Every structure is written in structure tokens, then in C-alpha cells.
């Protein structure tokens, strides 16, 4: 059995792990990607916070994805080498003036250990006259630590990594029995998926070791501390933008919003600025949806892409579904041969 996972970001690596741990554990598994070191996963702050508008095929499936994902990262957090994995617990606040619903999250409230209204004293932690606020605890997965850690573990378990640029899924017809497509925005070309568009984001990475909690405000403003005193300041959401050049005006606006919320950040040193193109898909994430790659091949294709800005959060949950779909499709097609 030859299995290929296409995509070198967190969805691809997580899917590869579940492939090996499950039904295909004795398979010859290869992860293919045009680049393993420059993916949108590397830009993400990695906080486990799923937007209220996120959706899978239905509410039951979406809640299962969120539950499975949180439990997966929480288990990694408890491992002996968790400092190398880049997963830790974290807590903080979200504030808003628009509506009480803005600071609520129907996906997270039943999953994370704590999710409650902020009290009057807690509103004093930030600058501004905010009407609504919530406090919650969650997890953080810092991708520039987690991705190398996950890749090393997969390699030690015998999974092969190959750098390869694909122009068509049919190029894999004769090389693999099962292909799982985790190419994110690249699926727009490989699958001719016109529902897939880029959601451009820009963030700043700053040195602010005194920041121990995360803070969210409105206008896509967030401050998320990571490992080694590095804090992510964000952010932006530019729908259907392919521009990967840094915008100095956008960086200035992000810094101004973050410093207005937390004035001590005026003392933070800006280390770098980063841009990423999130793979947003109209209609939700494409998971499963299997078929043969071509009419002249026995190779089957399963999809796992279109997570938008929630690839880090949802990678484990959707990967479990994708691998289960691959198992069922393989069984059904094998029985007909």
C-alpha cells in the first residue's frame, strides 16, 4: 500500500500522523510538498480559538472536529518533550463594544476549561472603555516549533518527505494507491476549486516577555504571547488578495491598535513582519469527498483543505475525518476489484 499526503503545512503533517497511526500503519507513506519551510502555518499565532462563523458540513461534525482537535493538542501538551513541540496552555481576554455576542463563542464554551464573562476589575487590564468582555483559557500551538517537531517524529517513524511541485493530481496516478490532498490554497489549481480564495493576513512579531496573557479587541486586533517572549501582534483580513508583499501602512495600523489596547507594547521591539495567505473556502472546509483520480486508475483521492484561518486549530479534527474517509473508500473500491 502506497499512500501520499500532499501538503507540507500543519494539515498535511497531522494527516500523515493519523494515516500511520490508523488503518494504513504498515503502508509506505510519503509527504509531498513544494515547500516545507514556508507555509501559511508558519505565520499563524496558533491559538486555539475557532471563530463563531467557522462551520463544517453540519453542527455535529463541527463540534466533533473541535473536540478532537482540542484533545489532540492537550495530549501533546502533556508529553515529556512538550517544550520542543511548542504546545502550552494560555489564558486571556476578548473585549468588544459592538455586542455581547462578539465576546461569546458557542464552539469553544463547552470545550475549553474556562469561558466566562469578564468582571469589572478585569476591564481595567486594558485601555479603552469597553462594554463587553470575556475571559477564557485555551491552548497555544506555536507552529515554528510544532512543525519541525512533528516532521521529526514522522521521519523517525519511517515516513518519507519529498519536495515536489505538482501541476495535476493525475501525475500521482501510477505512484500511489491513496492520495490525501492537504494543499490548502494550492487546491484551487489542483482541483479547479473556484470556491477557494485567499484571505491575506499580516502580523508583527515583537519581543515583549512581560506579556503572559492574550488580548483581543475589535477591528481584528489581537496580542498573543508565544514562547521565548515573542508576541504576535495582529492583524488583518484582506479577502481575495494575493499580495504577499509587506504593507508598511498596515503594520503601522496594527501596531497602533495593539499599543492602544495595551500601552506597554510601546516598549516592545519589533523583530519581523510576516504575511500569509489563508485558504478560505466558500461553503466550508472540504474534507473527505473521495473519488478515483482518473477513470483509468485505481488510485483514490481524499481531500482535506480550505480551513481559512483555522488550519492550526482544526487540523487534527479534520484529519481524523479525512483518514476515516480514505479507509472507507479504499475498502469499498477494493471489494469491487
Automatic annotation (TrEMBL):
Cofactors required: FAD
This protein's record includes keyword Flavoprotein: yes
Source organism of this protein record: Trachymyrmex cornetzi
Family: Belongs to the DAMOX/DASOX family.
Residues binding D-dopa, per UniProt: 222, 278, 309
GO cellular component: cytoplasm
Keyword Phosphoprotein attributed: no
Domain of life assignment: Eukaryota
Protein's GO biological process: D-amino acid catabolic process
Domain FAD dependent oxidoreductase as annotated: residue spans: 2-318
Binding residue positions for FAD: 183
Keyword field: FAD, Flavoprotein, Oxidoreductase
Name of one Pfam family that matches: DAO
Protein name as annotated: D-aspartate oxidase
